[in-house]
Amino acid sequence: MSKLDPEVVIDLTSAKKATIPTIAPGLLLALSDGLVLALVGWTLNHFLGADALTEPMEAAAWQRSLVTGLMLVPLVKSVFGIYTLGRFDYMERTRRTFQAAFLCCAVLAVPFIVMEGFRSFFVEALSIALLGFAVTYVADLLLIQGLLSSALDWRTPVMIVGAGPQGAAIAEKLQRLPWLGMRPVGFVDDDDSLWQTRVAGLPVMGPVELLAKSPAVAGQASAAIVADMGRHGNDLTGLVRTLPFRQVYCVLGEGNVSAVDATYHNLHGSLALRVSVRPPTGYLRIRRAMDIVLSAILLVLVAPLMLGLAVAIRLDSPGPVMFRQKRWAGGKQTFDLLKFRSMHVDAEEQLQHLLANDPVAREEYMTYHKLTVDPRITPLGRFLRKTSLDELPQLWNILMGDMSLIGPRAYMPKELPEVGDSAAVIGTVRPGLTGYWQVSGRHRTTFQERVAMDVFYVRNCGLLFDFFILCKTAVMVLKGDGS
């Protein structure tokens, strides 16, 4: 499972070998880092180092700095367990890489201060190390996304215990995000009404005890995921002991437990999860300052583009350039969300007519609150939505304080009954131009999945999380993966 879904990993005595040893991905990443760092070292040495320096002493000093900086990268990354991560969540990998780079800075800062004659050496070594962290981080993601995520034999086959809504959500997530490193093969559940049915496209094979009684069924997986711990209560330990797997993952909550700062402790034989609750006041002030500065700069930079789009919208279809819609801002507050108009002016009437006469479209809209093929969208509007250019006017909403660059979805007031009790959490921060759910599936996620992702973001928000979302948003915009 992802680090973003808190879990407890319980190692059992009976061992089962995976199709590919778990050390293989880590070893592959280490070899990849070695090749990348060797290429970086050769390039720097050729253009900036020994090949370009004429003084032997300068060349020797440069080579020492180069070797020191490059060697620190895999050494510190191994200290933070980056090569031994069995699953490859972006946030966890990013967090550990930042921590490794920070430790590298701290290690080199002390001798830089106390050893005056060697300061140039430490500056060069630190610069090379930070470059190495950045390059290997990108290489790791490319390797994971490109090679490992498509190698199904590498992904650990897992059996999900519990075929309810939470189990279905976990299965869908693992299928949609192969870089998490797990491949669900099926469900077991003591609810006999679910037996011999399919959930999230996977078979419900029978009761939980089937895993212990049938080696053929248990042999299909190398680990298990207990999807809903609340159903088992005090019997959880007994349940785990009956599962014939070396590793069992007990999911504590689908977005309902803060996980970014969660750590695990052994309290003299009792496993405990420590969750740090951070006061958000300072973070929210920093984020508001960033919103003002970035939105003002972006508005100036994209003003010519926005003017050109306004003219194009006028020529494309009759109606106003801007589309205004009431959105919820927490509590009883609402605001007018601004967008470039991408639909015909009678879009609402077209929607009601379509939903009344097309049951397939009605079911899709009730599930996702979107339509894959939407006749209401204008020809130019399809381009604006594909490239997310229709959302540029929301920079004004951000500057005025109605929204933030990053945050939960800006829900319509009529959607609040479906949001339910989660509104009390989501409404504590400003809605965002982009957010966690937008970079985690967008239109491929159901409405309730979006709500769960928004709750998770609010309970885990921080500058590092926001940086991760901004980077993924930039990638999605460049790929044209719009709504």
From TrEMBL:
Its main location: membrane. Keywords: Exopolysaccharide synthesis, Membrane, Transferase, Transmembrane, Transmembrane helix. It is found in: Membrane. GO terms for molecular function: phosphotransferase activity, for other substituted phosphate groups. InterPro entries: Bact_transf, EPS_sugar_tfrase, NAD(P)-bd_dom_sf. Residues 287-479 form the Bacterial sugar transferase domain. One of its GO terms (cellular component) is membrane. NCBIfam families: EPS_sugtrans (TIGR03025). PANTHER family: COLANIC BIOSYNTHESIS UDP-GLUCOSE LIPID CARRIER TRANSFERASE, SLL5057 PROTEIN. Belongs to the bacterial sugar transferase family. This is UDP-phosphate galactose phosphotransferase.
